[in-house]
């Protein structure tokens, strides 16, 4: 079924416990492998990241070994078997089988035994090893080799969709540049612009993360276009020009009850994000200013404040705490968690 990455993350522990292997299908660059690594970190698992398109069948089943006139298969140490000691400070492994349905049929056949029997050659996979498979969509013009019906029935299948709200929450918590989150609040449709009929760069959760690492006021358009595509790069560059028109935090703090709220939508989003990112300078005054924005923008402010500061910081300001509580009740019928 179709779902978001967060929805999948919530059910993965259930599947792991039952030794059912999830298969995450999606268009490229939306964060399938990232969510697997986040799950691994949460549950203290060592990640084994394998691209099946780069593997041969023998890489999975092992190599033949002859002893006393008999042959067996010896597995590579890539895979944890029953005798493998747990990694230091870890509770097990997360085996990520990426590009599964793009692998050669012979490799898929070898992986069948791994998924079905949890076995490498004649050796059992370690009981503390969880498995996730990932693959592309054939509708995206990706190289996809049809999986056998027997293999398909061995997975729990999830079709991942990009969700802007989820990504914004992740972006704030992971230090993505505020200018990027402001822009994508203003233009959420530009988070993901993949078109399978084009072979040019496109915006995606992955490329926005890369953009965040190199972004400053002087980042050339040619660099932006190399990551996001020319059209998105032009729009983002134009949005960055808004920042030249923004008020300073000091100006806002001088008179938060009366300082003008920007009329232009783009400048409004940029100003809101800037105010949130400086909230710890004076929570009460900046909360007063933020409350004057269009109510449609309040929920974005709520999400960003929770992500950037956490509940411990929020409770230090009675005004901020009461405002966020009121917003949470309006949105969800209960206080924000």
From TrEMBL:
<dbReference type="InterPro" id="IPR027417">
    <property type="entry name" value="P-loop_NTPase"/>
</dbReference>
<protein>
    <submittedName>
        <fullName>AAA family ATPase</fullName>
    </submittedName>
</protein>
């Amino acid at each position: 079924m179709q779902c978001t990455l967060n929805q999948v993350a919530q059910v993965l522990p259930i599947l792991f416990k039952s030794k059912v292997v999830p298969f995450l299908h999606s268009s490229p660059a939306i964060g399938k492998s990232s969510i697997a690594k986040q799950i691994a970190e949460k549950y203290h698992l060592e990640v084994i990241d394998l691209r099946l398109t780069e593997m041969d069948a023998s890489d999975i089943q092992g190599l033949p070994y002859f002893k006393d006139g008999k042959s067996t298969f010896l597995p590579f140490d890539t895979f944890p078997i029953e005798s493998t000691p747990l990694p230091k400070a870890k509770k097990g492994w997360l085996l990520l089988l990426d590009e599964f349905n793009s692998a050669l049929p012979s490799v898929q056949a070898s992986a069948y035994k791994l998924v079905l029997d949890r076995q490498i050659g004649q050796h059992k996979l370690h009981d503390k090893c969880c498995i996730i498979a990932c693959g592309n969509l054939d509708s995206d013009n990706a190289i996809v080799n049809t999986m056998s019906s027997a293999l398909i029935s061995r997975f729990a299948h999830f079709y991942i969709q990009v969700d802007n709200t989820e990504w914004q929450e992740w972006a704030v918590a992971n230090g993505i540049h505020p200018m990027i989150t402001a822009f994508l609040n203003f233009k959420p449709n530009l988070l993901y612009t993949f078109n399978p009929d084009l072979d040019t760069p496109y915006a995606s959760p992955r490329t926005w993360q890369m953009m965040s690492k190199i972004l400053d006021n002087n980042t050339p358009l040619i660099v932006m276009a190399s990551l996001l595509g020319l059209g998105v790069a032009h729009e983002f560059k134009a949005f960055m020009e808004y920042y030249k028109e923004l008020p300073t935090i000091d100006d806002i703090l001088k008179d938060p009850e009366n300082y003008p709220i920007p009329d232009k939508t783009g400048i409004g989003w940029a100003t809101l994000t800037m105010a949130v990112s400086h909230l710890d300078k004076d929570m009460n005054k900046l909360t007063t200013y933020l409350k004057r924005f269009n109510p449609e923008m309040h929920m974005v402010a709520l999400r960003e404040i929770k992500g950037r500061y956490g509940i411990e910081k929020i409770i230090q300001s009675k005004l901020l705490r009461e405002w966020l509580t009121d917003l949470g009740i309006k949105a969800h019928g209960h206080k924000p968690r």
